[in-house]
Amino acid sequence: MAPVGRPTADGRSSRWSKHREARRAELIRTARKAVHRIGPGASMEDIASAADTSKSVFYRYFGDKAGLQRAMGEVVVGRMQEQLIEAARKASTPRDGLRAMVSAYLQMAESSPSVYVFVTQPAPDSGSTLDASPTLSSFFDAISAMLASPMEDYLAEEPRAAAVAQPLALWPRAAIGMVRAAGEQWLSMPPGTARPSESDLADSITTWLFEGIAAAVPNASLAHTSRRNPRSKDES
């Protein structure tokens, strides 16, 4: 027979583990609200004060500020990835799928620029960037695969693409760099007439990516890739 006290001990351990998970999730939610309100430069003291607790509680759960950044990043990245998957699923064409993913990325970043910057910026005195962390690395790996899917569908319609297949294999990761760089520059722009809307920027980035690919394929037609058919036969 199993010791009588064992199930009770296991039960207490399970309840304590669930309590810690719930408390950790609560601290992350509070930290996100504090960063959204205060800005990406919020200190651990600022965040702890917003949570009505002490810095030692955050250090106990997350180790240091870099640990809190990673924990918040896991939540933000997870939600962004869900949005990107859903956007791609609803698209009817490769180009629409790409635009939907670009738009979802921009919308999530724009919903709270401060939180976006907080989870992607290097931690103070860390000596490294969070790009090297498993959280963001796995996110960008997943997005690379997602971006590759609509592009593979598009290239399947262009038999001449075989001649440049090897260089084009690098396209998904390069596309991520373009989308992220353009998006972060856009977030830093002050509101005004010079700042494009999220929809206009998504259209522009999609055009850059798709027409850039078409230009790399010898004699490829752009007509079926364009949402607005910007060229006529006389202009090409």
Give your account of this protein's structure.
With 236 residues, the protein is mainly α. It has ten helices and no strands.
Give a quick summary of the entry.
With 236 residues, this protein is an all-alpha fold.
Helix tally equals 10
**Low-pLDDT segments:** 222-236
Estimated radius of gyration: 23 Å
Beta-strand segment tally: 0
Cα shape: globular
| Helix/strand structural class | mainly alpha
- Oligomer kind: single chain
Mean pLDDT: 78
- Portion in beta strands: under 5%
Q: Give the proportion of residues in helices.
A: 55-70%
N→C terminal distance: 84 Å
List SSEs in N-to-C order.
Answer: HHHHHHHHHH
Major β-sheet, in short?
none
Write the layout of secondary structure elements.
Blueprint: H1 5-38, H2 44-50, H3 55-62, H4 65-90, H5 94-111, H6 113-120, H7 134-156, H8 165-168, H9 171-188, H10 198-216
Q: Which labels suit this protein?
A:
single chain, 236 residues, mainly alpha, disordered C terminus
